[in-house]
Amino acid sequence: MHLFSILLSIISLAVPTLPIIEHEPYISNSKIRADxxxxxxxxxxxxxxxxxxxxxxxxxxxxxxxVDAESGAVLFxxxxxxxxxxxSIVKLMTALVFLEADIVLEERVEMTEEDEREGGEDFIRPxxxxxxxxxxxxxxxxxxxxxxxxxxRSIGISTQEFVNRMNQRAKELxxxxxxxxEPSGLDPENTSTSYDMVRLLNAIRDNEIIAxxxxxxxxxxxxxxxxxxxxxxxxxxxLGSIVFxxxxxxxYLDESLHNLATLVSTNNGNELYxxxxxxxxxxxxxxxxKNLAVWAERVYRWNL
Length: 304
Fold this sequence. Notes:
This protein has 304 residues and is an alpha+beta fold. It has helices at residues 2-14, 90-99, 132-140, 145-153, 159-172, 194-203, 208-214, 282-299, and strands spanning 26-27, 32-33, 48-49, 63-68, 74-78, 84-85, 108-110, 129-131, 191-192, 218-222, 229-233, 244-253, 257-265, 271-279, 300-301. β1 (26-27) and β2 form a beta hairpin.
């Protein structure tokens, strides 16, 4: 036994110890925790809960999460690990994979009959063409399913290969409970969790193209051969409310009800990731997100 202990000591000296990252504990909506939704590279203060008795607002959503964007600390959670159909929030990952390919955004591509999908508004129709940038706008801002399919095929690979890239990217981002089966979000088998949706939002935080498109109320796209422009309105009605939206995406299927994944700023300039999945109506979805943003700003204090 003595010899065995000596051998263990020798091995421990020979093998370099791995750094152990310890996070300070903090109070979430209902418990003390020390976890972070995503890794951070520097020591960042976690918001301090100044009203420890407040457990959060009553929500219509079946799953919800509020995360401090700087520290990754969870400020509010409601069944954040439940698997849920993403619906059109899928389009955020489609855009990310598309933009990471070798593409020219001003290239014009014609839409075909094979690109048509049910649901959503057709801002661009078969036989018409537009720039890839405008297809991206129709997909992310207007949630057009056919425009999303054009994006996925425009990088020169099959749909299955594109989906494989989406799943690989999810794996790289630590989205362990996410599965993509097609690029538009129409299939309810595209599933994820509120936690993984925050990881996706965090991955696109520095993507100016996605943020610019999804952070505006409307945009105009150019259609050819007519040369006419068409207006694309956002599906995210949290925009223009009392909450300042930096970017985000909505989603709806009968199976998912009304989903939202978004980054917002508080009145003090602090940023929050808010995810609500399964709100009963569009109005409930907006109200859930507003209530969570207002609650977090009232209940937490950010220390510089």
